[in-house]
Write a structure and sequence with these properties.
The complex is a heterodimer. In chain A, the strands form two sheets. In chain A, strands 2, 4, 5, 6, 9, 10 and 11 form a seven-stranded mixed beta sheet that branches. In chain A, strands 1-3-8-7 form a four-stranded antiparallel beta sheet, with no helix packed on it. Chain A has no helices and eleven strands. In chain A, about 0% of the residues lie in helices and about 55% in strands. Chain B contains no helices and twelve strands. In chain B, strands 2, 5, 6, 10, 11 and 12 form a six-stranded mixed beta sheet that branches. Classes of the chains: A mainly beta, B mainly beta. The interface between A and B is medium-sized, with 23 and 22 residues.
Chain lengths: ~110, ~120
């Protein structure tokens, strides 16, 4: 158990809908990262927050947004969902932002029908 | 830009034999290199990392990896594989010269199957 928690574990929804994925980092970690894992794209970095501020953006669609709250938990919002958004979404956390290891949560499996 | 290549989609070994999973990387500056393992329906578990110092890095569950700067490689090894090592292995890299971009770039993954 990495200490990173993600809810929900599974999510089934319809095209056009909006969902929110939640992540709680390890105790003491200030940095949160979101990744998407799909069969065709592999593991792709989406976005990073450090102590409440956005620090880096990767291949994140405009329909997707995220934020990190004062208690350091993070939420990833996915809207106008398409079939291709079906994937495993991982959250990771680290103490800082340079050399530290990123520890991954168990993921949220999203299925868009 | 940073990238990782895992040239083998699958590696099959017999239990008790040595296991090697290959990884090569490309970065502008000095690399920070990581290995993760993913079991079915689980998240990624950290195995080991190379930041600086000794080229041979020892990690969890008897795994080790050797950093080779001239060959830009970071191969994962285990002297004697176990059936329980069967999983999906990912190599990842971060460029140490990045200012605000601290993302990890992952390889496509290598499926390891250890037969009894």
């Amino acid at each position: 158990d990495s200490g990173v928690t993600q809810t929900p574990k599974h999510l089934i929804t319809a095209t056009g809908q909006r969902v929110t994925l939640r992540c709680s980092p390890r105790s003491g970690d200030l940095s949160v990262y979101w990744y998407q894992q799909s069969l065709d794209q592999g593991l792709q970095f989406l976005i990073q927050y450090y102590n409440g501020e956005e620090r880096a953006k990767g291949n994140i669609l405009e329909r997707f947004s995220a934020q990190q709250f004062p208690d350091l938990h993070s939420e990833l919002n996915l809207s106008s969902l398409e079939l291709g958004d079906s994937a495993l979404y991982f959250c990771a956390s680290s103490v800082g932002i340079q050399r530290e290891t990123q520890y991954f949560g168990p993921g949220t499996r999203l299925l868009v029908l | 830009a940073q990238s990782v290549a895992q040239p083998e989609d699958q590696v099959n070994v017999a239990e008790g034999n040595p296991l090697t999973v290959k990884c090569t990387y490309s970065v502008s500056g000095n690399p920070y290199l990581f290995w993760y393992v993913q079991y079915p329906n689980r998240g990624l578990q950290f195995l080991l990392k190379y930041i600086t110092g000794d080229n041979l890095v020892k990690g969890s569950y008897g795994f080790e990896a050797e950093f080779n700067k001239s060959q830009t490689s970071f191969h994962l090894k285990k002297p004697s594989a176990l059936v329980s090592d069967s999983a999906l292995y990912f190599c990842a890299v971060r460029d140490s010269t990045g200012s605000n971009d601290y993302k990890l770039s992952f390889g496509a993954g290598t499926t390891v199957t250890v037969r009894a």
